[in-house]
Structure formats: structure tokens, C-alpha cells
Amino acid sequence: MTEEIILLDHGSGGKVSHSMFSDIILPLFENPELSKQDDGATLDVEGTKLAFSTDSYVVDPIFFPGGNIGDLAVNGTINDIAMCGAMPKFISVGLIIEEGLPIKDFKLILETMANAAKKAGVKIVTGDTKVVPGGKADKIFINTSGIGVIPPDVNVSGSNAEPGDKIIISGTIADHGITILSSREGLKFDSDIKTDSAPLNKMVQSIIQSGCDIHVLRDPTRGGLGTTLNEIALQSNVGIKIDEQSLPVRGPVQGICELLGFDPLYIANEGKLIAFVPQKDAQKTLEVIQQNEFGKDAVIIGEVTKTDPGSVFLQTSIGGLRIIDMLTGEQLPRIC
Amino acid sequence: MALKYIEEYRDGSLARGLVKKIHAVSKKDLRLMEVCGTHTTSIFRHGIRSVLPKGITLLSGPGCPVCVTAQKDMDAFVEFARINNVIVTTFGDLMKVPGSSSTLTKEKACGADVRIVYSIFDAINIARENKDKEVVFCGVGFETTIPTIAAGILMGIQGGIDNFSIYSANKLTPPALAALMETDGIQIDGFILPGHVSVITGTNAYRDTFEKYDIPSVIAGFEPIDILQAILILIQQNEMGKPALENAYPRAVSDAGNVKAKQIMNQIFEVCNASWRGIGEVPLSGMGLKKEYQKFDAAIKFGMDMPDVPEPKGCACGQILMGLKSPYECALYKKKCTPMNPVGPCMVSSEGSCAAFYRYS
Are residues A172 and A302 in the same domain? Predict the structure, then answer.
């Protein structure tokens, strides 16, 4: 068998996904907007700066503690737009439904989507539905796309990190991925963990309104914090050093990670952002984030360095130093 | 919430104290081998190499079950996946290990029914729910895993499940250490002995090997404090010229081990010869099904007897897991062989030394 085929690993969000993007996708579609490789594209439409993003959701199971595929899909696109420094305004929804899905489940998912949109203050303005025969999809897949407006003086990008910047995370890591994993058949854990899926647009809005100088905003979803930091280190050509002891991880999440051999640094989040800000604005930004309902556990986890551009290092709790690479190998398929 | 028995063994000030002691007592250049793959991962994850004196070299040993699986056994797993009506059940680590012509991941992508399970009991349940299919479990593990496989077989017998079988590539740790010590060119000044395996085997299982080779040996837990403590003891034994077999993991390991687990293991399995990647055939180092349980032996059920094949050209996994080479000395490392496109098993398993080097250094 020599023919190359798509493997689950291509969808991991880690190294293989990245090489699929740069080797196959980018050369075919190349343009300046796509090449920036941010969470969404930043567009100039007759003088107005817009952010535009799309994402598909195939999470399994479709219902899990703290949410379902519906609010995950709405919050995910809202967050991708917000991470461009934009205010999300309008969302489209594409539904691919497997024949046999109970109507009550379908309704519940749509109600959750409507509530999530309302909570975030965005409108679902267009959409599409397709139904496929049983076995040709798995219950329901959702695509959402969204548009937001970037205020004129805002310039946030993964390529803007500068040496000396402090790195803030808005709360505990790995909650979403571990929630999905522990909801799966065969791996039921008796714990109170739930997804962190949440809209972060209001948090981003307050950061911007605070007047702090924000260099980078990113939500560390698939591939986890470790992969996202690597993306930024590469995009900005800087080094990054974070402190293991400062990383916020809930006890039960840490426990399941220990049990199954997962590193929380590579587990998906769906309601967290990382912000890179110059040292002078770090404390103020942290306080602004902590005032948001989804940012109470925010902390500073590290800083940008001049040395080792493109690499991310972790100062371990015992005083050792190790590299954090991008996720290699599919850790948990169909997590979002 | 603090995690009992984890956080106290990751305590920064305790660790710094141990590191200071290690630097104070360490005079000679020493090569210490951590036998177990979980130790390898923990050493990298906590940056332990970066805090040790320059003269202390840590070698990764033959204690990652996936890494020591012979090529012909990997080929057998792939062949099972190609048989119509067979569901292959496996631990996740085996999915990407290259057989001679394919991997379980690729077979799955092409339509084979390959399922990742977290224990043999999941595999038994799959067999129960798929009576019209044959379920094969890839048995790859050491003393930690073999008793659970034995318990799974007992459960299958009790449940009257006959569409279930295992392919046993299971292995025992002490014979591998002895084989290692007999190998030409081996330079090891001490063993960090596996924690989990020793919970089952007990300290006594290593006594013969220790007495024959007189090599400093310390059983260690997996947290950084455990590992630093074991390294300190090994250095002290070497500096004083007083080798000993010590248990630095008494909160989990006893002299006799887990007697019940050993009983179940010995009820179903018997010691046999086994092929180890890199080391070759090691007498009495495997665990095969006893004659009366052979109806659960997938090799017999399907007549599976794959030929011995050479390991991939240029792949140094065999020498790496014997401590003869470091991953950096393998010509394929980070070039032709990466976790995305692994050539040898040490680059696949999360406990493999090449994967750990790639990921963490």
C-alpha cells in the first residue's frame, strides 16, 4: 500500500495538519489574506476592516457535560472572529444531518445555537441543511462561518508577538478535550468536569476598550495551548518561555490526564484565550480579563524571549527546562 | 484541588534539594539506564536531564512494550486487520507502528475494523456485541498488562465468549535485563528499575539478575522526586563501590509483589521464548497461552505465522533500546523518521525514546 491517504492525524490540529495546510492547501489558494494563517482572515472592504472565519464541527458525542455540538459551533466561530480583534456580527450555519437523527435532538441543538448567538449578541442570518443516508455521516455535522468588524486602530495578529511580551491565559486548560473524552463510550469517568465552551467576544471587547496594547490574541482549541504557542512562536519568529507551575489545570482534569497519559498542554480548549501584551500593560490586561465571567482564573503564564526564535520552552516545576513541540500524532479525534 | 501522591512528588524545593545532593556526590562519569518507557517520558517531561551533572548519562532501556515488539508480530497485527470479518482491538500506541508493508492506522483508513481499547475488557465487550465477527486482541505488554489479559480470558470463559482471541507478544522484564547484560559492548553502571512492573513482580524478581551481575539497581516511582531519588542512590552506590538492589518505591512495591495478579497470570500463561526487537530471541522471556487455553490463541485460530523479517534498513531502534546508541546517533532520526512518519517503533510510542527525544529535546 504505497498510495498516500488522508489519516485522522491530518485533522489533529498538530504538525500533520500544519503540513497539509502548507504543502497542499496554501499553494493552491495562495493569497495574502490566507497566508497570514490567523484564526480568521482580516479583510479590507472599501475602508472597513472585517474579520471572516469558518469552522466545521464533528464532535463525538454530540451532547456532553456543559454543552452540545450546537453552542460549540456558534461559540467557536465567534471566538475565531474575536481573536482577530473584531466584534462578531453575523453567522451562517450549515447543517449536514444523518437520516435517523431524532427531531427532539435536532431541535435541542438548534435551540442551544439560538441561545448561544443571543448571549454573544450575534445574529444567525443565513444557512443550509442537507440530509444524508444513515451511515454516511454521524448524527450531525455543523459548519459555521462568521463576519465581524475590526475597530480601525486595532491590529492583532499571531505575527505581532515581541520579545518582552507577557503571555496571559484566561483560565484553566484542557477542560473541553477531557470532557469529550470522558463522555465517550468505554471511558466514563465519574467527575464534575464540563466543557469550557464560551463566547469570548465580550472579553476581547473589554480588553480592546481598556486601551491596552494587545499584540496577539488566540484561542488555543484543537492541538491545545502547546500547539498554539508554537504557531505564534513561528509566525512572529520569537522564542516563548512558560512556567509549568503557573499553568492552571483543574484537579480532576489533571487526574484524568495523568491516568491516561495525556499532556494538558495538548488538549483542546473551547472557551479560553491567550493574550500577548507588552509588560507595561500586562497587569491591567490581566485584571480586565479576570473581570469577565469567563476569565476569573486568568493568569500570566510566561513571556516572549529574544532567544531561540520559533521555539517554546517550559520551565518545569523541578527547575528543569524542556521544549514544547507542536502536537504530533492524533491525540483525540473528533474533539470539536 | 491537590492531587495526592502527585503534587508532593513534584515539589520544587524538594527537587532542588535532591539535585544539589546529586551534584555534591557525583564524581565519576556514569551511564544509568531507565528500563521503563514511562520513566523515559517522565524524565523528559520534567526536564530531569537538564538538571543533572554533565557526567551522568541517562539511557532508555527495553521497557516500552511497543518498542520491543518484533517486526513479525507487527506484521501479524496488520494481517489480522486484513482478514474479512475480524475486528482488531489494540492499545492506541500500536496503531502507527510500521509493519513491513502497512500500519494498523492505514488499514483502518482503508476500511479495516480496528478499534482502540483501553483494556482487554473493552475487547471482550466488543466480542460480546459482535457475535457474528471474530475479535482479535493485540497482546503487547509486560508484567503490568499480562495479568489483566489473563483476567480477560477468564472473563471470556465465564461469559461463554468464543469469538475472541489474543495474539500474545507479551514479555517479561527480568530476562531482558539479563540478556542485556550479556550483550557485547554494553556499558551500564546502574538500572532504574520499572515501578509499575515491580508492583506486580515485587523486588525479589530482580534478585537473581542482581546477584549474577552485581549491578546497582533501584526500583523507582514515576514522579520527578522518585526519579531524582533513584538517580541519587545509583550515584552513591557507584561512588562507594557498593552495588545493591534497592526499592525506592516502597509506597507501591513490596518484596513479593502482587501475589494474586501473578497467580492469575500463571494460571492462563506459561513462560516461553520470545523475540525482542533489536535483542532477538531471548529464552524464557515471553508469556504464551497454556495448552488448555489455546482456543483463545489467535495465532493458532487463524494459522498466523509471519516470517521473521529484518528490521527497516538504517533503523537503530534495536541498538537504542539496548543503550548502545542514542537517537541522535541514528541516521534516520528527525530526517526520514519522525512521529508523523515513523520508521521504527521507538518513534511511535509515546514511551519510545526516539519519540521522547523528538518531542522534548
Answer: yes
Q: Is B252 exposed, middle or buried (0-12, 13-18, 19+ CB in 10 A)?
A: middle
On whether both A191 and A320 belong to a single domain, the answer is: yes
CB–CB contact A320 B49 (8 Å): yes
Looking at the structure, do residues A94 and A183 belong to the same domain, yes or no? no
Quick one: CA torsion of A319, A325, A329, A330, rounded to 10 degrees?
A: 80
**CA nearest A226 in B: which residue?**
B359
- Identify which of B44, B101, B105 has the shortest CB distance to residue A7: B105
Question: B162 vs A278, B134, B301, CA distance in Å?
Answer: 65, 9, 11
Chain A residues touching B117 at Cβ < 8 A: 186
What is the chain A residue with the closest CA to B342? Answer: A329
> Alpha carbon of A224 to those of A221, A277, B218: distances in Å?
5, 20, 36
Residue B12 lies in a domain: no
Give the count of domains, chain A. Answer: 2
Domain membership of residue B2 (yes or no) is no
CA A2 to chain centre: 34
Residues A214 and A279 in one domain: yes
CB B298 within 8 A of CB B304: yes
Per-residue pLDDT of chain A in tens (336 residues, 90 and over written 9): 457 889 888 887 778 888 899 999 999 999 999 998 887 899 999 999 999 999 999 999 999 999 999 999 999 999 999 999 999 999 999 999 999 999 999 999 999 999 999 999 999 999 999 999 999 999 999 999 999 999 998 999 999 999 999 999 999 999 999 999 888 865 667 778 899 999 999 999 999 999 999 999 999 998 899 999 999 999 999 999 999 999 999 999 998 888 887 899 999 999 999 999 999 999 999 999 999 999 999 999 999 999 999 999 999 989 999 999 888 765 566 777
Asked if residue A254 and residue A122 are part of one domain, the reply reads: no
> Contact B360/A316, CB-based, under 8 Å?
no
Q: What is the CATH number of the domain that holds A141?
A: 3.30.1330.10
Name the interface residues of A facing B (CB cutoff 8 Å): 1, 5-9, 15-16, 19, 186-187, 245, 250-252, 254-255, 258, 260-261, 263, 314-323, 325, 328-329
Which residue among A150, A178, A208 closes a domain?
A: A150
Contact A318 B51 (CB under 8 A): yes
- My answer on whether A141 and A193 are in the same domain is no
d(CA B27, CA B126): 56
Q: Is residue B16 part of a domain?
A: no
Say whether B3 and A319 touch across the interface (CB within 8 A): no
Q: Which residues of A touch B122 (CB under 8 A)?
A: 186
Chain A residues with CB-CB distance to B45 below 8 A:
263, 316, 322
The residue from A150, A179, A212 where one domain ends is: A150
ipTM of the complex: 0.77
Within-domain flag for A189: yes
Q: B25: which 3 cell numbers?
A: 556526590
CB contact under 8 A, A1 and B44: no
A6, part of any domain: no
What residues of A are in contact with residue B50 (Cβ under 8 Å)? Answer: 320-322
Q: Which domain holds residue A242?
A: 166-324
- Using an 8 Å CB-CB cutoff, list chain B residues near A316: 45-47, 224
Q: Search chain A and give the residue with CA nearest B104.
A: A7
